Amino acid sequence: KYALEKCVELGITNFILFESKRTIGRVKNIERFNRILLSAMKQSLHSFLPFVETAQLKSIINKPGIKILFDQGSENQFSFRNNLSDTYYFLFGPEGGFESGEIEMIDSSNRFVLSNYRLRSETAVIKCASLLTGRF
To answer: N or C: which end of the chain has fewer CB within 10 A?
Structure first.
């Protein structure tokens, strides 16, 4: 909930929620997420209602576009120097982290570390949103 609110405040407009093998909570009540997004949109005076959907991780991987996976074990440092004109999917693991098989679904050149420190999932999402929206 907190990460969704903050991302909307920062201007993020599309969210795909998924369950991985180590997801602690369950993604189930899309109506609740829509209410959270609507409230955050009104509070931050944005004029577009953010879009939220649920999907399986594998279906996200198969969508056209570039997938960026944030993994504490990666040696690639992330920055937004790249041109973001393509469709990007930023994948954040659950509190329990991704399983190795899930990590291997993403090309190693698209796996990045977001911080030198281990971040909670919601903190990583907010940091990425802040970096992304701060470059425009």
So the answer is: C
User: For 88-124, what is each residue's pLDDT tens digit?
Assistant: 899 998 877 888 999 999 988 899 999 889 899 899 9
CA atoms of 132 and 12, how far apart (whole Å): 9
**Which 3 state secondary structure label does DSSP give 4?**
helix
Q: Please say whether the beta carbons of 8 and 50 come within 8 A.
A: yes
77: β partners:
113
Q: What is the CATH number of the domain that holds 115?
A: 3.40.1280.10
Beta strands in 18-59 (DSSP E): 51-54
Q: Are 118 and 96 in contact (CB under 8 A)?
A: no
Tokens representing 74? Answer: 């990666």
Say if residues 110 and 74 touch (Cβ distance below 8 Å).
no
**Secondary structure letter of residue 25 according to DSSP:** S
| Range of the structural domain that residue 116 is part of | 2-134
Structurally, the chain folds into a number of domains equal to 1
